[in-house]
Inverse folding.
């Protein structure tokens, strides 16, 4: 019993210390989108592109709202180099299900699935709350981390995105 308590205490102490924070370097990842294109954060940083990385669920209404918002943001800021990448964290979804979701909502930015092992989500500290969005600047630093989304906060969200693109 003492060993079990010690393990839980260590997990409770170590995991928060390991969590990513604003200002930390973004962990590199490599993931393939639904169209077969491979996305590497290291390449995007080498190209000096700001990145919005969002982890979402197709069953989450707030995620759907954020995805529609990000679709408009993509139209507005992709010409300025902004890359938006959505990563679905639903396990056991087929690519066909995710493509149907993308097509139903007319999403024009890359969508990938992380459902095999949630590898990318785990290196970003994903613990189940969605949407989880990382604002990564052109140098690879995490500028903002947002958990959740509401239409009421969209103007603030867009101001932060505009700042990310400008700097």
């Amino acid at each position: 019993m003492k060993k079990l308590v010690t393990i839980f205490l260590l997990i409770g102490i170590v995991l928060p210390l390991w969590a990513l924070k604003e200002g930390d370097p973004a962990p590199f990842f490599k993931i393939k989108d639904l169209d077969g294109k491979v996305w590497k954060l290291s390449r995007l940083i080498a190209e000096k592109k700001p990145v919005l990385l969002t982890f979402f669920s197709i069953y989450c209404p707030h995620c759907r709202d954020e995805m529609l918002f990000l679709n408009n943001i993509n139209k507005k800021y992709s010409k300025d180099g902004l890359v938006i990448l959505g990563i679905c964290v639903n396990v056991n979804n087929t690519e066909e299900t995710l493509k149907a979701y993308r097509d139903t909502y007319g999403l024009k930015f890359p969508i990938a699935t992380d459902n095999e092992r949630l590898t990318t989500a785990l290196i970003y500290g994903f613990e189940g709350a969605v949407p989880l969005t990382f604002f990564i600047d052109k140098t690879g630093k995490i500028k903002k981390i947002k958990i959740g989304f509401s239409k009421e906060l969209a103007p603030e969200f867009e101001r932060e995105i505009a700042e990310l693109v400008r700097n």
Notes: The radius of gyration is 16 Å. The CA atoms of residues 70 and 154 lie 10 Å apart. The chain has one domain: 21-166. The helical segments are 2-18, 41-46, 61-77, 95-104, 119-123, 154-166.
